[in-house]
Amino acid sequence: MNTSHPTTTTHSTPTTSHCTPNAAAPDRAADRAAVNIAHKLSLFNDLWAQKKIADVNDYEVKLAKLKGEFVWHSHPDTDELFLVVSGRLTIRLREGDVVLGPGELFVVPRGAEHCPVADEETAILLLEPKGTPNTGDAGGPLTKAPQPLA
Fold this sequence. Notes:
8-stranded mixed β-sheet, globular, 1 helix, mainly beta
């Protein structure tokens, strides 16, 4: 009978830190709070309405809940990142469909015509430049500006 135990690795804490705060940087405590995606998703139920949860340089990080088919559109000036949080998302492209499950992402290349479709309620995270219309060049009644979530 083998009585050996698995090897345990320990890590020592360095006595000096190389992560010294920059004294010139503004103190923005709110910017240091973690964003809980599940909690943010629990704050709304409307479909196809993007909710801004963070800014990254000139980009917005947005959440949305989807069900059904959106509109065919493209974004001539930017790529669009879709990350599925829950559910399943089909991104129809003229060249063929891309099907995504939880934890999977796809970047629609700039200018590529696409149509998101969710047969079941699906939660996604989007990353796009600020001011990017959700309907891209298609416009129409489904165009909505992203709303910030508290």
